[in-house]
Amino acid sequence: MTGKQAPTLHTKYIVTEGPIGVGKTSLTSLLADELGARLVLEQAENNPFLTDFYRDPQRYRFQTQMFFLLNRFSQQQEMLQPDLFTRVTISDYLFDKDRIFAYLTLDEHELPLYEQVYRVLEPKILKPDLVIFLQADTDTLLRRIKSRGRTFEKEVSRDYIAAVNEAYNHFFFRYSDTPLLVINTSDIDYVHRREDLDDLLKQILGMKQGTQYYVPVSRKR
User: Fold this and answer.
1) Using CA atoms in the order 108, 50, 31, 132, what is the torsion angle rounded to 10 degrees?
2) Cα–chain-centroid distance for residue 109?
3) Residue 174 — left, alpha, or beta (φ > 0 → left; ψ -120 to 50 → alpha)?
4) Could you give the CA distance from residue 178 to residue 132 in angstroms, rounded to a whole number?
5) What are phi and psi of 177, to 5 degrees?
6) What is the rounded average pLDDT for all residues in the chain?
7) pLDDT tens digits for 107-144?
8) pTM for the full model?
9) CA 136 – CA 186 distance, rounded (Å)
10) Which helix or strand (DSSP H or E) is residue 16 part of?
11) For a FRET experiment, which of 16, 44, 92, 201 has its CA 20 to 30 Å from that of 129?
12) What is the 3-state secondary structure (H, E, C) of 126-151?
């Protein structure tokens, strides 16, 4: 927050989540700047199998998923540093997302092996204090994916994005591990409207337990 004191936040570890193209990284970066927080971004483009996966999912799904699982675990372990508890940390992914994608892409022969590895790693992951779930319809996701022009996403299909979107909604409908703030991003523009970002920050600062659904300032009038 340039020239201003960052607001006081008792929550120390915040995660933003949502399907591909929903705007996780944009919101995470904005919040980190506003709150003077440590920023942790997933580096999806580092997966050497991802481009091939979008082109031929059946052939490359297991390699892609296992790389993501181990890479995400490694990054999560790096976060376990002493200053995690003295400074707010904001990340643009939840470790649990790996399982969402695994069950979406792997077959009945691959899943048991994946589950064996996942069950060893998951207990070592730190749970966030707050998860922010971003939603959007599939057409909006596809438009945003296309506009950002990432090379490895050129082959992604509408059916795949629709399936990912449905899987995320199903997962978070049942989610209860941490406090959860649900935001429909079609009703808010926190990137270009300062009023929207300020109102969202107020909601985050006031979060307690359970699940809350964010109502944008434009709809409160």
Assistant:
1) -20
2) 27
3) alpha
4) 10
5) -70, -30
6) 87
7) 999 999 999 999 999 999 989 999 999 999 999 999 98
8) 0.88
9) 6
10) strand 13-17
11) 44
12) CCCCEEEEEECCHHHHHHHHHHHCCH
